[in-house]
Amino acid sequence: MKIRTAKFFIKEGFGSLRKNKTMSAASISSVIAALLVISIFFIIVINVDYAASKLESQIEMKVYLQDNLGEAIVSSMAKELKTISGVKDVQFIPKAQALIDLNNQWGENSYLLEGLEGDNPLPDSFKVTLTDPTKANSVALAISSISNIERVVYGKEELEKLLKTTYILRISSLVIITILVFISVFIISNTIKLTVYARRREINIMKYVGATDWFVRGPFIVEGILLGLLGSFITTIVVGIGYYYSSNLIKNQMIGLLSVTLMPFGELIGDLVLLLGTVGLLIGVIGSFLSVRKFMKV
Question: How many CB atoms lie within 10 A of CB 70?
């Protein structure tokens, strides 16, 4: 495309926005409405996924040891555990510390544990964190093959349910957002079609004098890009401000419940800008292209 032609498209695109203020406002409003629906769903999905990822990252294995192992053996076992693929960190917990932790967990009922200090029934153990929770089964098998291991506990069934749920959530969210984008394109194309219809005579004249399809489409596509980007810009500001204040309100009102699971504003805003900018651009371009296509046949 020649620079001169590109300048013409841009000039005509901006000019059309100014000349058709009412229709432009209607188109931008449609873009904003569509993007608001997508944004709300996106925020819900990304926060649920964020919470699930947090839970996945906190998954640990408890590796219980046989009784009366010397320090040298325990140290050797720790080194061997760290060499297993999928193991992120290994922490040794002696039985005395395990009893203290259990006392703290039981709180008011800790008196039931009194007198166990001299004959502690709890075993020494390792707390193992993973690089990837999907590798839990293979890591557990590898750990079980090490000598002097009594048993490995990591909530296998609960972990499998969690991983299955998060997988379904991620796939479902991708499908739903894709459907919403298609619906948005349909809505925007119908709105822009009204603008194109009002200028059908102008399009017909351009076609009769020999203008190519792309020369006719160009200004409308530029106009669609501008409408999409303006709509996404306004939506980003509205949703960004709304999320910032609502997330802070939720954190302040529900400390200890939702504050841990809500994605911080700084982490979310980048993804939101990218999503809305891309979707706004796509629905503007595709919507304009589909709208003007009907009038290309002269």
Answer: 8
72: tokens are 């040298």
d(CA 232, CA 239): 10
Confidence (pTM): 0.66
Q: Are 193 and 291 in contact (CB under 8 A)?
A: yes
Cα 81 to Cα 1, 17, 133, 212, distances in angstroms: 61, 66, 16, 69
Closest listed residue to residue 261, CA positions, set 41, 58, 39: 58
Q: 239: pLDDT confidence band, cut at 50, 70 and 90?
A: very high
Residue that has been written with the tokens 């200090």 in this structure: 117
Alpha carbons 55 and 58: distance in angstroms, whole number: 5
Residue 268 has pLDDT above 80, yes or no: yes
DSSP E strands: which ranges in 240-279?
Answer: none
**Cα–Cα separations (whole angstroms), residue 133 to 35, 55, 56, 85, 291:** 34, 10, 6, 12, 48
Separation of alpha carbons 101 and 97, rounded Å: 6
Q: How many CB atoms lie within 10 A of CB 81?
A: 21
b or e along 41-65 (b: 16 or more beta carbons within 10 Å of the residue's beta carbon)? ebbebbbbebbbeeebeebbbbbbb
Cβ neighbours of residue 2 closer than 8 Å, sequence gap 6 or more: none
Residue 278 to residue 42: CA distance in whole angstroms: 14
**Distance (Å, whole) CA 82 – CA 130:** 10
Three-class SS of residue 262?
coil
pLDDT tens string 202-218: 777 777 787 777 777 78
Report the distance separating Cα 213 and Cα 210, nearest Å: 9
Domains of the chain with CATH codes: 3-55+161-296 (no CATH), 60-153 (3.30.70.3040)
C-alpha closest to that of 284 among 32, 88, 112, 7 = 32
Give me the half-sphere count of Cα atoms (radius 13 Å) on the Cβ side of residue 135: 14
